[in-house]
Amino acid sequence: MTAPIALIDCNNYYVSCERAFDSSLVGVPVIVLSNNDGCAIARSAEAKALGIKMGDPVHLLRDKIRAHGIRVLSSNYALYGDMQRRVIAACDAFARDFEIYSIDETFLDLSGFEGQDLVAHANAMRARVRKWTTIPTCVGIGTSKTLAKLGNAAAKKNPMFDGVADLRDDGVRTWVMDRFPVGDVWGVGRATARKLEALGIEHAGALRDMPMKQARAVGTVVLERLVAELRGVPSDVVETIEPRRKGMAVTRSFGTPVTDFPTLFGALSQYAMRAGEKLRSHGLVAGRLTAFFHTNQHKPDRPQYAGSRTVSLHPMTSDSLELIAAAKRGAERAWRDGYAYTKAGVMLDDLVAADLRPRTLFEAGTEKRDRLMNAIDEINGRFGKFAAVTASQGFKREWKMRSEMRSPSWTTDLNEVPTVRAR
């Protein structure tokens, strides 16, 4: 018998995190903006009801914001990441293992709980999450990840499920799948959806009944596996070990355009410093670094330029100082005067585990630098991410992103922890 899988999804996650610490946001329309306060990336139910769509530029919403008193917040990723940790802690006793799919979605392996009423089990888990974090959730249950994802969507959209949809029940599964648009099925892209609809396959139920050979012909082995998952045959299990990364990037848009190299290099230094920290946290080293920057591509009436250069790292490293030096070499070769740059970043690839990296013939010992990097990580982890910086990063950081409406770091900064007074 196939073990059940659940997907727990936090509703309107970024908004719910903000409401956990600011009760004045409850019951009113709220939107959270992307990096640099550009566009809406999270909306409360009230904001959605006003017609605000994901990705709407905030400058086009000014009239609606004023007319309806919409609360607008800058994104606060430190808060959202910490709240995710708390949500997972609340779920821990309700599953054998879990796999974090995204910041607001987690797959749960319910092996060993099959003998219980899993709807009641899921509701108890939702109640625990709500009690510990105030964040509302929905849960989908199935015998594959695709069915769990489908059940979660049904639980979120249809009040009849009251927050939990168990698709192990044949009748419930058929009812949901016969009404679920094929283009909304997890893993079906727009091009594949058009092909399926041209064949008369418009709902998840019809996709489930599609012959496997035909599915492979239409959408390769990916669609074939999806059809199998809709039939309850899991193509994989909950991954409790994070798959090895092939690459990573640290990129940001600037709050104000950058026109001189020292300022640009200050930003790249910070991104390279952060990239090294991420490598070390995953026990990896990189073999190549790419530094890039470009002008505002959404203003074609202004001079445009995009520069990037890739630098090989010999030996492979996670040392932030080595990454900063490599970023400088790449940026110097790509730099052009006379442009206003609005975004930059560093990308790392050719990643391998640090203990498996190839050694060079004349490689010097790295013990002292390793201790230095660990000390910097510990200082920034304890006292804030900019407590220890390199000279090239600077302290003013005029280029930093706009986040003029960011809420406090309620749970990650001692200076911003809420104060409670008894009267």
Automatic annotation (TrEMBL):
Pfam family, one: IMS_HHH
UmuC domain mapped to chain residues: 5-189
CDD domains: PolY_Pol_V_umuC
Keywords on record: DNA damage, DNA repair, SOS mutagenesis, SOS response
Organism domain of life: Bacteria
Molecular function (Gene Ontology), one example: DNA-directed DNA polymerase activity
Enzyme class (EC, first level): transferase
Subunit annotation: Monomer.
Family as reported in the entry's similarity comment: Belongs to the DNA polymerase type-Y family.
Purpose: Poorly processive, error-prone DNA polymerase involved in untargeted mutagenesis. Copies undamaged DNA at stalled replication forks, which arise in vivo from mismatched or misaligned primer ends. These misaligned primers can be extended by PolIV. Exhibits no 3'-5' exonuclease (proofreading) activity. May be involved in translesional synthesis, in conjunction with the beta clamp from PolIII.
Name the UniProt record assigns to this protein: DNA-directed DNA polymerase
